[in-house]
Each structure stands twice: as C-alpha cells, then as structure tokens.
Design a protein that fits this description.
Blueprint: H1 17-38, H2 41-48, H3 53-59, H4 62-70, H5 76-84, H6 91-105, H7 107-118, H8 121-143, H9 148-168, H10 179-195
Amino acid sequence: MTEAETPRRRGRRAGGEDTRAALLAAAREVFAEQGYQGATVRGIAARAGVDAAMVNHWFGGKQGLFSAILELPFDPSILIDRVTAGSVDTIAERVLRTFVTLWDTHQGRFAALMLSVSSQEVAAAAVAEFFSGTVFQVIAEATGADRPTMRGALAAGQMVGLGMARYVLKLEPLASADVDELVTMIAPNLQRYLTGEL
C-alpha cells in the first residue's frame, strides 16, 4: 500500500504545533457560531479533534484561546488583576492608564483588530461580548457596585470608542493627547460608569 493509499488514522491528534493550529482554527469557527459565552472548551476541542486538556496546555483556558485568535498583546486576566488592585475610587484612572499605554505600544495591532471586526458582524458580536462581559464586567464586579453588567457595557463602550477614535479614525486632538490628558478628561466619566449613580 502506498503512502497515498494508507488510510488516515482517526482519533486524537498529538500534542504538537499542529494541535495548537487546529485549536485556533476550530476556535475561530465556534466563537463565530456561538459567541464568546456560548462557546465551550469541550466544544472547541471536539471540533479540533483533540482532548480538551490541550486548550489549557496551549492557551491556559478559553479566555487565553480567544485572546490568541484576536492576537491580543495582553493577557486579560493579568490586566484585570492590575486595574482592580487598589482603591475603587481611582479604578477608572488605572483602567485608562493601563489600556491607553498598552494600546499606544501596539496601536497598529489594535487598529487592525477594530477594522477587521467592524466588517464582520459575527466576529464583532463575539469581540463585543468578550470585552463587555469578560473584561469590563469583571472590572465592574470588582468594585462591588450594583448593575455590573450594565456598568461593564458602559465602560467597554467608553474604552472601545476611545480606541476607535484614537487609533482608527485618528481624531485630533484626541489622537495625539498624552495619557495624563486623557485620564484628566475621561476618568471622571468612566468612574461614574463603574461606581457612580447610573
């Protein structure tokens, strides 16, 4: 029997780079079909034909896998820990400084992400769900304030809007403002979204 005639072995893949690639491909499909919350590690692994433990091995979990397909230049859980450490009264300042500094460093990647998802409705919905429900809702929950889902959505809207204006539209003088200026102008509104009266 020639190599071409040899039947392909069915079953689970080995744990190499091909497994990582298969997981990324499967994740793109599953997140697009089911959204961030609806997608499961087991479902993605099954689509890729690998053991679910491989998701943790390669990406540390669903959040890390989603970050990898978006090519985010940060680990969301580390970022959340950083901005929620400290006084609740200054959490908006930490959010702004952390995100804007990070985005300034990787502005080309952020702009590319925003442009790509804005032209793909399903992908945009998954990204919106991720930022609102997984990043900013968790930040809002850490404040102990009421209505964390609404607060997370408001904060996500503020920050994604800022990112679009600064890095995609390059709206001046917002695009060239330094971090301290942005914190002074935007933090009070963001703080109200996170902890004030709605």
